[in-house]
């Protein structure tokens, strides 16, 4: 994924493994991030707590998401940016 994005932003085109090229000259590319995901999760926890429902994220679930839910080239870390995994809240 990173190589495709680099081609797109650097060259304005993407070439696949068979040598076919797609030109992005007249294209608008919208990039998004999950930078606000911790705010969404906190809001969800507050709404659930108001209904006496808890949300616990187990270490096994965090490990699964780290393995299956992320591309390795983008890394996995906490919202604190220190590389640690945030603790589950109840």
Strand content: 5-15%
| Discrete helix count | 3
Structural category? mainly alpha
Q: How far from one another are the termini?
A: 35 Å
Biggest sheet strand order reads: 1-2
The major beta sheet can be summarized as: 2 strands, antiparallel
Please state the overall shape, judged from the principal axes of the Cα atoms. elongated
Helix content: 25-40%
Please write the string of helix (H) and strand (E) elements. Answer: HEEHH
Mean pLDDT: 75
What integer value in Å does the Rg equal?
Answer: 19 Å
Strands, total number: 2
User: How many structural domains are formed by the residues?
Assistant: 2
The unreliable regions are 78-86
Q: Can you give keywords for this protein?
A:
90 residues; two-stranded antiparallel sheet; mainly alpha
Describe the structure in brief.
With about 90 residues, this protein is mainly α. It contains three helices and two strands; from the N terminus they run αββαα.
Please explain how this structure is put together:
This protein is 38% helix and 7% strand. The protein folds into 2 domains: 1-31, no CATH class; 33-70, no CATH class. A hairpin with a 5-residue loop joins strand 1 and strand 2. It has a two-stranded antiparallel ribbon. The protein contains 3 helices and 2 strands. With 90 residues, the chain is mainly α. Keywords: ATP-binding, Nucleotide-binding. One of its GO terms (cellular component) is cytoplasm. This is ATPase AAA-type core domain-containing protein. One of its GO terms (molecular function) is ATP binding. Residues 2-74 form the ATPase AAA-type core domain.
């Amino acid at each position: 994924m990173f190589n495709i994005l680099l081609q797109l932003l650097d060259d304005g085109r993407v070439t696949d493994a068979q040598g076919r090229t797609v030109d992005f000259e007249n294209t608008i590319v919208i990039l998004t991030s999950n930078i606000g995901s911790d705010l969404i999760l906190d809001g969800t926890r507050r709404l659930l707590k108001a209904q006496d429902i808890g949300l616990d994220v187990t270490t096994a679930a965090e490990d699964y998401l780290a393995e299956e839910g992320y591309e390795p080239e983008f890394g996995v870390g906490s919202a604190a940016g220190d590389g640690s995994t945030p603790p589950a809240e109840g």
